[in-house]
Amino acid sequence: MREFIVEADGGSRGNPGPAGYGTVVIDAATGETLVERAEFIGVATNNVAEYRGLLAGLRAVRELDPSATVRVRMDSKLVVEQMSGRWKIKHPDMKPLAGEAARLLPPAQVTYEWIPRERNKHADRLANEAMDAGRRGEQWDPEASRAALDTAAAARAAVTVPEPSGPPGDAAAGAAKAREALARGRTSSSSTEVESTEADSTEVDSTEADATEADATESEMTGADSTGADPTKADSTEAEMTGAEITEVEMTKAGMTKAEMAGSTGGGSTPAAAVGSAGGVTPARAAGSASGPADAADTDPTAVPKAAADVRAARTVAGPSGKPSVGWGSAPDLGAPATFVLLRHGETPLTPQKRFSGRGGTDPSLSDVGREQAERVAAALARRGTIQHILASPLARTRQTAGAVAARLGLEVTIEEGLIETDFGAWEGLTFGEVQERHPEDLTRWLGDPEAEPTGGGESFAATAARVAATRDKLVAAYAGRTVLLVTHVTPIKTFVRLALGAPPESLFRMELSAASLSAVAYYADGNASVRLFNDTSHLRP
After folding, report:
1. Are 217 and 199 spatial neighbours (Cβ–Cβ below 8 Å)?
2. Strand order in the sheet with 529-536
3. 417 among known catalytic residues
4. pTM (2 decimals)?
């Protein structure tokens, strides 16, 4: 059965005033935009325009495949809550629109999800294009639309990543070098995207302000309806522009040689690859000869020669006095560590296809296999009985995996923005081979330099590491002495482990991490860390 994503929005310049809507239909498996629709609808309220956008999206889905499942994503809390049945519909203008939306497709095929305004920019831009056209006395022209291009450009803007604040989780030896390298990580923008609720904008072209509209007051909520699943509460908001997921890609299993993976680089050897068993791939860093362009020691000032890395790793284990460090011989007065159990989410439809799946893509849900994996890991964690808190990345696959565990353990899930995956820019939805064919030079640079960004301006691994380190420091302080489940993605988990070991950046490419696997790192009061578990999948076996 096919799955589509509908993103819809509507706006009114005056409320009521000149109004328009925009809607996008996306293939959930590939991330391809299948349909764009927008229309100037004359004078109407914001909410009526939003419902009109929803109707247009559902009609487009019915035309494509009436048997498909649909995930509707809107930044209108009102529409989402009403169509989900949690809020009653009292306004006479909206009742017939909601009734029509409910009849277009069988309700069992459609789910509704609130998303922050910043994640609904494509539909928002279409709605504003429609209103602009109406102001000119015209209707929206799909041939003249720039909504998709402008949305993609905005999504590639890099975030400001906080500099790591201290050593917790870094091994003592070599940590200063790693932090110095990461501090030089480049970002293409100094502004951090901030989530907005519906009532925070007064711009003339805004399509928000749902919560303050005369036809969308809280009087439309009744009793228990008003308490259900408020997507704007503090522990479930989603930060934008912070990451996605790599390792839905597998390189060497496809039969590629090192030269095929990195392209010809006359004179030097090309990057290798470390391959995960369930989509857990990580492209390897270039380590060419001294004369070749892939020579990391010559071309990358932050690179760490293997011999030096091995020495530092040995010193990390021994400690400055030559005695074993935490993990082999803890001092008796350190107290209980903060222990992070790191769970990679279950499979999505993109996992077996070996496609890049990041924050800029379709945000796919778990597949049937992934849901089964989530249930299995939930049962395993329930048997262990040690988890005290659950935090998750804001992406759908991690929230769903965390939800399965939380239901079994009777705990709440807190969304942590810093756990989100890396952004893969223009590579979203592509296989490794497709990226190599379309962007060979960018791919080679990305494989060989942790500061290199994917084509179109995604997030470099250096920037991801700085973000993860800052998140780690915050969580270590907040959960001292506690055991916390962090449901996240391949790159953040490998980064937690890399920093705990004091290993150089290229160590990311020497780890295998499977879907729904468990890893664990303990963080002690003296700033040391101990890797306790890595890539455990025993709970997935029959």
Report:
1. no
2. 413-415, 389-392, 483-488, 338-344, 518-523, 529-536
3. no
4. 0.46
In a domain, residue 205? The reply is no
- Mean pLDDT comparison of 28-32, 66-70, 264-268, highest-scoring range: 66-70
Catalytic (active site) residue 421 = yes
Find the catalytic residue in 81, 118, 245, 421: 421
Average pLDDT over residues 226-238: 35
**Amino acid 237: pLDDT:** 33
- Give the model's confidence band at 159: pLDDT under 50 very low, under 70 low, under 90 confident, else very high: very low
Per-residue pLDDT tens digits for 350-371 = 888 888 887 777 889 999 999 9
pLDDT at 28: 85
Q: 508 lies in a domain?
A: yes
Name all contacts of 266-273 with Cβ < 8 Å and 24+ positions apart: 266/292, 266/293, 267/291, 267/292, 267/293, 268/292, 268/293, 268/294, 268/295, 269/294, 270/294, 270/444, 271/444, 271/447, 271/448, 271/509, 272/509, 273/509
DSSP E strands in 289-379: the ranges are: 338-344
| DSSP-derived secondary structure for 210-231 | GGG-TTS-GGG--GGGGGS--T
pLDDT digits (tens, 9 = 90+) for 444-458: 888 888 888 998 888
Domain boundary (121, 147, 173) is at: 147
Does the pLDDT of residue 199 top 60, yes or no?
A: no
Pairing of strands 17-27, 3-12: antiparallel
Q: Is 397 annotated as a binding residue?
A: yes
Look at residues 96, 112, 147 and tell me which one is the last residue of a structural domain: 147
Distance CA 17, CA 44 (A): 6
Structural domain boundaries, residue 410:
338-540
Count structural domains, the chain: 2
- Of the candidates 193, 195, 240, 345, the residue annotated as catalytic is 345
